Amino acid sequence: MQAKKSIREENLRKILLTKFLPNSSIDTNFNMWELNGSFYEKNFLETYHALDGKEGTFPETRYTVPLMEFGRFSVVFDEAIHFNRYRGKTLRSAFYDNITSFPKVKYLSYCRKYEVECLKGGTARPEWTSREAERYFGEPQLPGDLGLSGAPGWKLTALTDLATDMIARKRKIRLLRISIWDDLLLNQKLVKFKDMLVSPGKIETESILKYVERKVFGLYADDF
Predict the structure, then answer these.
(1) Is residue 144 exposed (0-12), middle (13-18) or buried (19+ Cβ within 10 Å)?
(2) How far apart are CA 202 and CA 107, in angstroms?
(3) What pLDDT digit, counting tens, does each position of 110-162 carry?
């Protein structure tokens, strides 16, 4: 699995490169099987089953994380597809309880508030379903129908987000998630990253850099 980069993600990366040195030493190839036998296995499997994952299976999904790698930290940019009821379930994992640098409450609110935005661009393949997603979560409902079995593809994306956070923690990668729904105060008005990153100017660039600097400080204040 490898996500296609959006113009917003590319613009964010360009902004961060004006301030932070790139680092290509991190292995961005992840595998859920890495959690098997680890300290996080119990929490991972509990969440997998909460998503109606098939009993008797352990997900072995291999994927490439779209990390923006810098000298002291890495960034993942979360687009609209990452905010829905399934990601909400993964965020309730006990894994997140003691990670002070992760915006759990804010991300949970995004999952409730912006699921309709997820539906706008997430009903086609492979977002809605895929052969691999159905291997673990069964047959899908019709596109747009979140009742019963819902969207196996969304479930796999949500589980991948959880696995990424766990594996990053296991590998001691200081991971900063930035959301399309995060906002900053610009000219006395709250503006979302969704809008700022379409065509960022000097004001947007400076505000984003200050925001990331604050967040990176939080990453290092967190108990690792």
Answers:
(1) exposed
(2) 28
(3) 999 999 999 999 999 999 999 999 999 999 999 999 999 999 999 999 999 99
